[in-house]
Write a structure and sequence with these properties.
232 residues, alpha/beta, 2 domains, three-stranded parallel β-sheet, two-stranded antiparallel ribbon, 49% helix
Length: 232
């Protein structure tokens, strides 16, 4: 189910509604809107239902609604310092953990309010190293170095706070998935609505532009996504 294209415009109205003093449970009701919708949809079908929420990178109020409705959290990142700090921030905002300076501020906001309201928060499930640049079939040394810093950050957290992980007994590197950069294939899939597993190599026409999808990179991209799906 697609998100509404006015969700950014409505974000402030959602935030203000959550802050109403009457009724006294306004915050809890608003923060569970997507959770309630999910439960209604699940009850409307006899089939097993699994929901995936694709969230905004920012910690907007509608992102918070999606997080509250989730059992597990999947964190995609690119190999750079900005992503490493972003992971630290989301962990601080959700669990009040991490760097003491950041965590002290986080405890004043979402983490504190969720704890007060008895709201269950998702567990850290999978970390996806996205758009990796490959050299001879392996991530480049630059990507490996940046990934090492991110893995080290997560490992440090896991040593102190295993309970926030979906698989607390596994080594952290077992929950890292690696997806190579093949932007042309993902753009083709998005613009044409073609599932990745159905994409075939060869020349493509995208809005009047000729785009070539090569066999090798496409196969590597599909294999990486297949491995990622196996994580679930």
């Amino acid at each position: 189910m697609c998100g509404d294209n006015l969700v950014e415009v409505l974000a402030e109205a959602i935030r203000q509604t959550a802050q109403l003093s009457v009724p006294v449970d306004s915050y809890r009701k608003v923060i569970n809107w997507i959770n309630d919708l999910k439960d209604d949809l699940r009850e409307s079908t006899e089939k097993e239902a699994v929901f995936f929420f694709d969230c905004n990178p920012s910690f907007a109020v509608y992102t918070q609604l999606a997080i509250v409705a989730s059992d597990n959290l999947v964190i995609p990142f690119t190999a750079d310092e900005s992503s490493r700090r972003g992971i630290e921030n989301i962990i601080a905002l959700l669990y009040g953990q991490g760097d003491e300076y950041i965590a002290n501020f986080a405890r004043l906001s979402f983490y504190k309010r969720a704890k007060e309201e008895g709201i269950n928060l998702p567990k850290l499930h999978t970390f996806i190293s996205n758009r990796e640049t490959l050299f001879e079939g392996k991530p480049s040394k630059a990507f490996q170095a940046a990934n090492k810093a991110i893995i080290s950050t997560i490992e440090g957290l896991a040593k102190k706070h295993r309970t926030i992980f979906a698989y607390p007994k596994l080594n952290i590197d077992e929950r890292f998935a690696h997806v190579p950069d093949y932007h042309s294939a993902s753009i083709f899939a998005g613009l044409t609505g073609t599932p990745v597993h159905k994409i075939k190599a060869g020349p493509k026409n995208l809005n009047g532009e000729r785009v070539q999808l090569n066999v090798g990179p496409l196969a590597m991209y599909k294999n990486a996504l297949t491995t990622l799906v196996d994580f679930f």
